Amino acid sequence: MPDDVVGLDACATRVIDEPRVEAARAQLLPEDELNDLAQLFRLLGDATRARLLYALLEAGELCVCDLSAATGTPETNVSHALRLLRTAGIVKARRSGRMMFYSLDDAHVRMLLDISREHLRHAKGRHL
Amino acid sequence: MPDDVVGLDACATRVIDEPRVEAARAQLLPEDELNDLAQLFRLLGDATRARLLYALLEAGELCVCDLSAATGTPETNVSHALRLLRTAGIVKARRSGRMMFYSLDDAHVRMLLDISREHLRHAKGRHL
DNA sequence: CTGATATCTGATTATATGTTCAGATATCAA
DNA sequence: TTGATATCTGAACATATAATCAGATATCAG
Questions:
Q1: How many domains does chain B have?
Q2: Is B15 helix (H, G, I), strand (E, B) or coil?
Q3: pLDDT in tens, A52-82
Q4: Is B11 a residue whose pLDDT tops 70?
Q5: CB atoms within 10 A of CB A123
Q6: Distance A56 CA to D28 C1' (A)
Q7: Strand D closer than 7 Å to the CB of B52?
Q8: Using one digit for the tens of pLDDT, what is the confidence trace for B86-103?
Q9: Does A79 contact strand D, using a CB cutoff of 7 Å?
Q10: Considering the domain boundaries, does residue A58 fall inside one?
């Protein structure tokens, strides 16, 4: 059989740069890590959640009703959104009486929010 | 009318920490910026696209068929994915003969990928 | 206890989007 | 030119998920 045909996990595709492909394959992230990473980004990739996160980035800590007021998001939506973010370890909650105060739970996420905002500013106008 | 009821864009929600809410509102990102940010994260938030991006992060530059081979993704999917990423300015393309070589187009995105991977490592095991 | 408030939850619906397939385009070799 | 190859495109389908609504839980005041 020809040696330029791959028979592993891919379909029979011709490979142009064999060593580079091998290197890339060797460093592929494990499936579960990749899914976790994708999930992290997906959670940041919704306007409603992003609004909440940037509000928390600025305000530090806010209760559900204040988050609702500050972002103009119905409280139910805020609650649903925060549950997803909390389960993923992106925000943390602190109870005080009948209120729950939320804040960002991770320095890396804070960095992601910052850098992405910066990216946007720099990327503006570069592409058609 | 009572002064603890908000009547601007939100529904009539009671506000707990008025000044903090005002501050958060004043610093809210404009809608279009927020949509762009959410779109950026959403594009990173898919396992197939993330696989391709991390492959490019490691390999530097790969053509479609090599990306397909390296990640085990059908070439059609690779092409669809790369179009979205290219339109958003996340990857750039270089033609060489009948092949197209793709690579990451933005230092910030590279940072996002790095930091998120780091986040994952550190966050592993912290939450239930 | 009862009532009021803040938040949460589950189910439904509507929308968005990743995947697949068939075929189109573009480049090169002969 | 013709044929082969690499990539792209559009449409149909299937799945995921955000928004909405009704009602549940939890905390506190009286």
A1: 1
A2: coil
A3: 999 999 999 999 999 999 999 999 999 999 9
A4: no
A5: 18
A6: 27
A7: no
A8: 999 999 999 999 999 999
A9: no
A10: yes
